[in-house]
Amino acid sequence: MQTKLDQLQAEFLAQLAEAQALLNEAADQAGKQAEELRIAFLGKKGRFAELMVGLKDLGNEEKAQVGKGVNQLKELVTNSISDLSQKAQTAIADLAVRSQWIDISLNPYQEEPGSLHPVSLMHLKLEEIFEAMGFTIYDGPQVETDHYNFEALNFDPHHPARDMHDTFFFKGGRLLRTQTSTIQIRAMEKLKPPFRIIGSGKVFRCERVDASHDACFHQLEGMMVDKDISVANLKHFMQVMLSGIFESEVKVRLRPGYFPFVEPGFELEMACLICGGEGCAVCKRVGWIELLGCGMVHPNVLRAGGIDPEEYSGFAFGMGTDRLAMMKYGISDIRPLHSGDLNFSRLFSAATHYRLG
User: Fold this and answer.
1) What are the b/e assignments for 296-314, b being 16+ CB within 10 Å?
2) Percent of the chain surpassing pLDDT 70
3) How far from chain centre, in Å, is Cα 347?
4) In CATH, what is the architecture of 118-356?
5) What is the pLDDT of residues 202-240, one digit of tens each?
6) Given this model, what pLDDT does residue 353 score?
7) What is the mean pLDDT of the chain?
8) Where are the alpha helices (DSSP H) in 43-177?
9) Domain parsing of the chain, residue ranges
10) Stretch (H or E) spanning 4
11) Is 263 labelled as part of a ligand binding site?
12) Which UniProt keywords apply (predicted)?
């Protein structure tokens, strides 16, 4: 009986070695042989089953000795087959991974990294500047009511300034907001002075499209409300903002201007950076760009926001960020900003990576 055990072990080890040799080149075949070995040696009609039949004819002492040998060999066979099967499965999985591997560092189609839009870059820069000065960022809906877009901003129902906005109206009285000043009203309803806020986004007006006008463009509004706020505070924050955007001192001028929601109101203009003040299509040949409207918040607007104008005062400003981006990046025409031209957008990938790096 011991001789049969030795022969069985030698036979198994020989077949195991053959199966293991296939792991590197034919792992699937090695897996099949592992299953065949299991059936041949450990199955119900396998080699070990045959040995167990012969044990009944042995004496007690020999039966115990041979039984021990059978169990040891069976454990060796079981562990070896299990190890071979696992190695075969791992080798098959590795082969599948290698055959389907995609090197993501390659660029077979010469695809270029994406970039942020120049207006997005401008908004990120402005938010960075104003957050550093203690301003909180707010947002609001693009589809508004007459109350938030006009009435709460001191536009009377028949005020001629309403006609200047060339508004897109919907049935039922709603409209596409013509200015981001609507965000200021919504913020005042929630906040108590003192506060500093900015809000930005798309606005819509029925404009004739040219080099400096579009029907859909972007604005950024800001407001600061506290006790004893004056025009001096307004000028200071505007100067800090522009210096931060253009990373140098810029030439500006403040002219009286009328806006229903501020009193007194001003128009802040800067020397055109496209032509250096000599005159071009962007600045309409005058050398100056109307950059933003600003002024001291009108008492009626403070009241509409639930703030007592006898106790608090504030300044507000609003600017077109499309024009600001044109000045910053030397763009001479507003129309490519919203054309979807990828060649135009690629020009700003370096600026994007610099901003995000």
Assistant:
1) bbbbbbbebbebeeeebbb
2) 87
3) 20
4) 2-Layer Sandwich (3.30)
5) 999 887 777 767 788 899 999 999 999 999 999 899 888
6) 39
7) 83
8) 47-54, 60-100, 118-132, 146-149, 161-164
9) 2-100, 118-356
10) helix 2-20
11) yes
12) Aminoacyl-tRNA synthetase, ATP-binding, Coiled coil, Cytoplasm, Ligase, Magnesium, Metal-binding, Nucleotide-binding, Protein biosynthesis
